[in-house]
Write a structure and sequence with these properties.
Two copies of one chain form a homodimer. By secondary structure, the first copy, chain A, is α/β, with parallel strands linked by helices. The first copy, chain A, has seven helices and 13 strands. Chain A has two domains: 163 residues, 3-Layer(aba) Sandwich (Carbamate kinase), CATH 3.40.1160; 72 residues, no CATH class.
C-alpha cells in the first residue's frame, strides 16, 4: 500500500487512531525497483530473490530510510501521532550480520541478531511511536538490507520479553486464503498442523511461506497475538 | 566533507571522541545535485539559489534523510557513539513553514518556526546523540528542504534556553579569512563591528554572509560560544 497514496493515507489514519503503545514497521514497495530502473542499475535476481549490491543498498537506504520513512512520519505527525522514523542503526535499534556468501551471495543483506527492545519500549512509554524501516546495521559501519516481515517479527518477539505484544501484519489480501479470488475462502485461524497440510497440498506457496514462517516464529516466541490481515495465527 | 569519505571519517572520529552531550547537524553535499543529474531532473536556480520543486524535494529527502544521515549514524555507532538520525518530522524535532512564494518562489523550502529542544535534551541526557539532517516538516504532512546552517543555529539557540551550548560550524576552510589563499589571514575573533566593516569593503561576501548571519544570531540569542572553523564569533 506504500505505492498507493490513498491506501497509505487510509492505513495511517487507522494506525494513528489506535490507542496504546505501538510500533510501525514498513518496507519500501516498488519505489526502490523503479528508482534502480531510472538510474540504469540492473536488478539482479537469484532464485526469485533480489541481490543487494552496493548501488542497490544505497537505493534501498534512500528509498526506505529516506523517502518512505520520512513521508510516513510527516503524515503521522499531521494525524497527531508523535512518530519517530528509525533504521536499525539509529540508537542501535536493530543489529544484524551480513548473510554468508555461501551457498548464495545475496550481497548486503542482513539477518537479524538483536533488537534494542528497551530503547523502543522507552520511546513508546514516552508516547513516541517508532516507525522502523527495514535497513539494519552490523555495528561496524555497514548498513544492511533486511526483510521487513523479519524486522516486524524480531521487534515483536524482543518487545514480548518486556511487555504484552500483538503483531499485526498488514496485507494487500483480506488474509490467508485458500483461493485468492474467493473472499469466502479466508482462513480465520491457522494452526501449525493446518499450515503443514496447506503447504503440502500447494495451497500455500511462494512469498506466503516466509511470511507465515515469521508469524509462527513470533507466536511461538511469546508474542500474545499474531495476525496476517484477518487471519489469526494460532500456536496450536 | 560529506562528499569525501576520508575527510568524513576523520571528522566523525573527532566528533565521536569529544566528551559530553552533543548534537550533529549535517547537509547533504553535492550528492543531491549528482542524483538529480543522473535522473535528468533540471536544477533550477534563482539568483544563485536552488529551487526545490517536488522532484527535488524527494531527492533531498532520499539523500539527506536517507543515505547521508544513515551512513553517518552507522559510522558513529561503529565508533561507539550512540547516534540517532532524525529529520525535523521525527518526534516533531523541527517545525517550519513553507517560505512564501512572493517575491521569489523557492518551492518546498522551509523557514524554521520551532525546535523541540526538550526532546533533543532528553535524548542527549540519555547518552544518545541526535544527528539531524536539514529536512523539516510543517506539521501538516509536508516535508521541507531547509538550510543546514539555519538548522544548526536554531537547534543551538533552542537548546541554549535549557542548558549551556557551544555551536561549532565545521568548515572546509581554516575559518573566516581575509584572503582564502593565505592561512595567515585567518580572523581569530570577529565582532559585529568588524563584520560590518568586512562586508562593506567586500572582504566577506557570497555564501559567507548567511553563514555569519546565522552565527551572530546564535551568539546574540544566548548560545555561550560560537565558532566557524578556528574563528570565534564575539557578541561585541
Amino acid at each position: 500500500m506504500i505505492d498507493d497514496p490513498e491506501a497509505l493515507r487510509a492505513f495511517l489514519e487507522d494506525f494513528a487512531s489506535r490507542p496504546g503503545r505501538k510500533v510501525l514497521v514498513h518496507g519500501g514497495g516498488r519505489a526502490a525497483t523503479a528508482l534502480s530502473k531510472r538510474l540504469g542499475i540492473e536488478t539482479k535476481m537469484i532464485e526469485g530473490r533480489r541481490v543487494t549490491d552496493a548501488a542497490t543498498l544505497d537505493i534501498a537506504t534512500m528509498v526506505y530510510a529516506g523517502l518512505a520513512n520520512k513521508q510516513i512520519v510527516a503524515q503521522l505527525q499531521a494525524l497527531g501521532c508523535n512518530a519517530i522514523g528509525l533504521c536499525g542503526a539509529d540508537a542501535n535499534a536493530i543489529k544484524a550480520h551480513k548473510r554468508p556468501a555461501e551457498p548464495i551471495d545475496y550481497g548486503f543483506v542482513g539477518d537479524i541478531d538483536s533488537v534494542n527492545a528497551p530503547m523502543l519500549k522507552h520511546l513508546t512509554d514516552a508516547g513516541i511511536v517508532p516507525v522502523l524501516c527495514a535497513i539494519t546495521h552490523d555495528g561496524n559501519g555497514q548498513l544492511l538490507n533486511t526483510n521487513a516481515d523479519s524486522v516486524a517479527q524480531s521487534v515483536a518477539t524482543a518487545l514480548a520479553q518486556l511487555t504484552d505484544v500483538a503483531l499485526c501484519y498488514s496485507f494487500e489480501q483480506l488474509g490467508v486464503m485458500r483461493d485468492i479470488a474467493d473472499p469466502a475462502s479466508l482462513i480465520k485461524e491457522i494452526t501449525p498442523a493446518l499450515y503443514t497440510e496447506l503447504k503440502a497440498d500447494g495451497t500455500i506457496s511462494g512469498g506466503m511461506i516466509p511470511k507465515l514462517d515469521n508469524a509462527f516464529r513470533a507466536i511461538s516466541a511469546g508474542v500474545k497475538s499474531v495476525s496476517i490481515g484477518a487471519t489469526k495465527i494460532m500456536d496450536r
